[in-house]
Amino acid sequence: MSRLGLCSLLLLPLVLLGSGDGVNGKVLISVPEEVEVKEGGTARIDCSFNISEPSNYTYQHWFYEKNGRTKISYMGPDMGPDSPSILDTEYKDRITVLPNFTLVIRDVTVQDERTFVCQIGAGVVGFAEGRAELHVFKAPEPPVIKPSTVGMLVTDEPDEKIADCSTRNGFPAPNITWYKGRTPLQQSEKIRITTTITTESSGLFTVSSALYTPVRKEDREAQFYCEVNYRMPGTDRMMESDRANITVYYPTEKVTLIVESPQEPVKEGDTVAMLCEADGNPAPEYTFHRVWESKDGQDVEEEIEDVTGEYLVLENVKKEQSGRYRCRAFDINNAEADIKADVEISVNYLEPIEISPKSPVEVMLGQDLVVRCNADGSLPREYEWKRKEKLEMPGSELSLSNMTYKMGGRYSCLVSIPEVPGLNSSADIDILVKGHPQVSMKQQQVQVYENEMVNLTCEAFGHPIPVITWDAEGSVIHRQESHSVSSQLSLLATSELLESGVTCNASNSLGSRSQTIRLEARVVFLTTTTPTIDTSPTATYTELKKSESRGVLIVVIIVCILLLAILGAVLYFLYKKGKIACGRSGKQNITNPDDQKDNIVVEMKTDRLPEEAELLQGSNGEKRPSSDMGEKYIDLRN
Known about the structure:
The protein is mainly beta.
C-alpha cells in the first residue's frame, strides 16, 4: 500500500465519502456533491469526517480546482477552532471557515462555479478528501422578439425568416423554444431554427435564435412568440416574449362589393358608400363601373371617374342613379385573372304631391267639400290628412261635410313609404269658407250700474271678412283674424240703454246678422240699524240681488218680533213687581213717595249688529232722522 493509502469514492445521495487507511485506522469524510446558489448570494459547503482510533485529526485544508489546485484555507489543532488561516487568494475577503469546518463564500459570482475540495489529515492514519461542485445561477432578461419587417410571399420552402428572438445576461445559458399560436415548433425538414450563444465579458450568456418556416396564407393571422427556459436553485423557470405577426403576401382570387351605408333602404338625397374588398395582400387596384345590359344581353360598362381606393361614394343620390354597379380588381401577381363583383342599387323616391282642387279652395257655408291627394313613388304609399298637427282622417281623400267657418283653414296631406324610413313628403291646401256673417256674443245680458262705464264684446265669423257696427256711441276697438273679427265697445250705461240694450251688427257682401246685448240695472236695497246710546243713527245703501234682499227682509222681521217679545216680557215683569202702574194717560209715577226727585227711564232698542248699522246710510251719505230709527223710549216720569 502506498503512503497515501487506498482512496475509494462511494457515491451516496448528495454526499461524497472519502477515506484513507493508516497503520491502525481509517479517515472517513462527508462533503455535498453539489451546492446551488444565486449570483450575489452566499454559498455554504459542509465538511464532516470520522477518524478511527487511536489517532485524531492533525489538519484541515480547503482547495478549489481550476487549471490546477489552489489552497485557500488551513486549520490545525494548535490553531484553535476559531482561528483558521485564510490564505492570500482571490477568496481572501469573501470566505469564512466555521469551527465545524464549513466553508462559507459570500457575494458569489458566476466565476465561482468550480470544484471545492475539503482535505482532512489524521497523522499516521493518513488523510481523506471530499469534492463539492458549486453551481451558480443568474436569471436572464425577458426575451425580445423581432418579427420580419419585410412582407413574405406564400411558399412551401423554409427560406423565409419569420422572426429573431434573444435573451441577455443569463447563467448558465438558457434555452429558446419557438411557438406558433400554442403549438411548439421543432427543428425539421420544413422548420429551421438557428441558435447562437455569446459569452459576455461578465461571464453571462446571451442567446439568440432565428426561425425559418414555410409561409402560408393562413399565417397572416398567426401569432408567433418565443419562450426562454432557465434554471434557478431548486427550480426550473420560463418567460415568454410578446406576440408578433408577420406580413404575408398572396395574390387576389376574388372581391366583394357591398353597400356599407346607409343600412336602411336607399332613398333620394342619401349618401351611398360602396366598399370593394379583395382577399389578396397587398390590396389590388380597384376601378368602379356603371353596368347596363345591351339589347343582345351583353354587359355594357361605363367607368366612374375620379375614384381612388376601395370606396365608391355617391352623394345626394337620385332615382336615375338606380342600377347595377361593378368593382374590378387588378393584381399584378394574378394579372390574367378577371376579378370583379357587382351590387344592385335601388334608389327609392316620392314624386311631388298633387292636391285636387288646387289651393286655395273657396266653399260656401253649409256645403260639402272633397279634396284628393296623390303622389307617385317607388313603393306603396300611405296617406293622412292633418290640421294644426292633429290627425283629421287617414287616406288620400279629405271629405268635409256641412262646412262651418271653424272648419276653414290650412290642411296638410302627408305621404310616406312605410318600407323606407324617412321617405315622406307633405303639401298644404287652404280652404276658405264663404257666407253671411255669424255673430257670437260672450254675454247676452250684462248687469250694470246706471251711468257707469261698461265694455261690450261682439265677435263675427264670415268670408269675406264682415264689418261690425254698433247702434250706440262709444269707444270701439277692432281685432281681425283669418276668418273672424271682434269688436269691443266701451260706453256709459245710460237709462235709455238700460231700456233698449245695445245691438251689434255684422255684415259682408253675402248678408248681415245682428244681436242685442241687454243691460240690466243692479238692484239697491236700504237697510237700517240701531247704534248705541252715545252714537247718532246712520243709514247706508246696500246693493243686493233680488234673492239676497228677500232673505235679509225676512231676517229683519224675525229680529223685530223677538225684540218686541222681550220688551213685553220686561214690562210684564215690572208690572208684577209693582214698579209700573198702567193708566189711561199712559204715564204713572212709580217713584218712592219719600223721594220724588228720582226719575226712571226705560230704553227699548233693537238688538242689531254693527254691520246692519252701516246699512242705514242713504245713497248720498245722509243720515236718517231719529224718528226712523229702530229705537224707542218710554218716559216713566210724570
